[in-house]
Amino acid sequence: MITLINIEWQKLKPYTLFWIFAGLYFFILFGALYITFHFLESNALTNAPVSWHNITYIAGFFNFFLVLLVILYSTNEYQFNTYRQNVIDGLSRAQLFLSKLYINLILAIYAAVVLSILFLVLNVLSSASLTTDVLFTDIYFLCYHFIKCFCLLSIAFFVSLVFKRGIISILLFIVIGLADVMLSSVIKLSILELLPFSACGNLIVNPMVAMLPLTESTSPTITTTLYAVVFYCFLFNGLSFWWLTKKDLKG
Amino acid sequence: MILKVDSLTKKYGHIIAANAVSFEVLEGQVFGILGPNGSGKTTTLGMILDVITPNGGTYSWFDAPSGSNQRAHIGSLLETPNFYPHLNAESNLRIAALIKNVSFDNIDAVLQRVNLLERKKSAFRTFSLGMKQRLAIASALLANPKVLVLDEPTNGLDPQGIIEVRELIHSLANEGKTIIIASHLLDEIEKVCTHVMVMKEGNVLASGKVNQILATSSNRFTNDVNEGNTIKQTISAESKIEVAAEDIEQLQNKLKELPYIKNIEKRKDLLIVTVTDNIEPSLLNQHLFEKGIALQHLSKIKRTLEQQFLEITK
Questions:
Q1: pTM for the model
Q2: Phi, psi torsion values for B168, nearest 5 degrees
Q3: Does the distance separating the beta carbons of B100 and A90 come in below 8 Å?
Q4: Which of A62, A102, A202, B134 is spaced 20 to 30 A from A55 at the CA atom?
Q5: pLDDT, tens digit, for every residue of A39-52?
């Protein structure tokens, strides 16, 4: 496992795009969160601490940076024919899959770590005192954020394997995502809310909406949604594994 | 046994890229796979290197069951050199070294061997095609493998590069390495291989020792008929020689007097003569000189691969 991560690290270390995306993710997320909470602070929620729910909900919009990174990184390997070369050099196809799985996991962990840091920073910046209550209330949203991010990266990875070209994969990821979300919001069928992108979105719903008094809802419960997202993690990684082990490795 | 391939088949839709290809490679052989572009050479090599999934058939390296990872002990160059363009030569080889589980200390030695040591810090994308090809060979040598698989190793190289690569292959063969080499160049196979398999349109046409399959200047007809090897067809012992002299007309007339001349074709300012029994140009020259003709030009025409195939498939 260490060797596989080391191999990926050797590839990523001099890869400018990797640093740009990883850096942009951090700074833009920080900027966006700062502006949001500063804005909120000066309005309704004066001095209220930043909650895990709020911060993970907003951070959800920025997962796309990591999705782009995963797609470009993976399609590059097709373009350079290096998936093929890695196997020729001696990696098994399963190892090829694992090395990318680890990277996706590490990126999802990175997203969670970045968010934890920003959570602390923003709470220090707000004048709320850092009680254990503030720090740990609803911390399970951080887990949701991690799983959601990993699920999206798993979908992105599979899309990149199928379509092989960066731009096409990115566009199709967006199109599939939009179609998924539109379908589930136009047709009011609770099962549609469990489509991959919708389920990821529903895992951390808009905190404003969540604050509204509960109406009769046929939506799947959060537990069902969580199961669905975990299921998609397994499904898409399983598909990627199948694709990498059974198909020809040609660019 | 180094490699045993049994009935490997690959289909792309209706096209059969490799049709039940079987062969064996023993230790120390320099095994050539010869065929024109699109004959299934790369497909076959891709299957034995696990990057192309066969539709049928099996293969095993080093008598080990398939699935166990043996490729780290095989140095391979398949089609074009594939490296990360944004990484320099050394970093690219580090990745290969990690995959092959060998020390980074080997990197300088293999770069030295292919004359790229002074460029080790240059990004791969800045390399010329010849340098890329040499880096690919360096990568293949990294783990000091017992077996090398080389697909068109001189493709795209200039004459100097071709000579260097062929010398490298010779010296590797002399070190006792087993080499499997695919090429569409008859000349190349003839020069470096001990054994050859000829492919066309996915089928194996012939296989055996190089001097039996491809000899252009031997009397192998009398020798090889009963050797029981897998030659399916044999090639006639005709060859072609280009000649020119001051007086082409006179040359043509004198040539007609020679018993072994089968055919004379006239070109712009030279003649192409077909001789039987693989008469050497030196003998032809001697006979013409005795008839009072001094040749301006004398050259043996290597049979092209297509002609060779026509012969084999006849």
A1: 0.81
A2: -60, -45
A3: yes
A4: A102
A5: 765 544 445 677 88
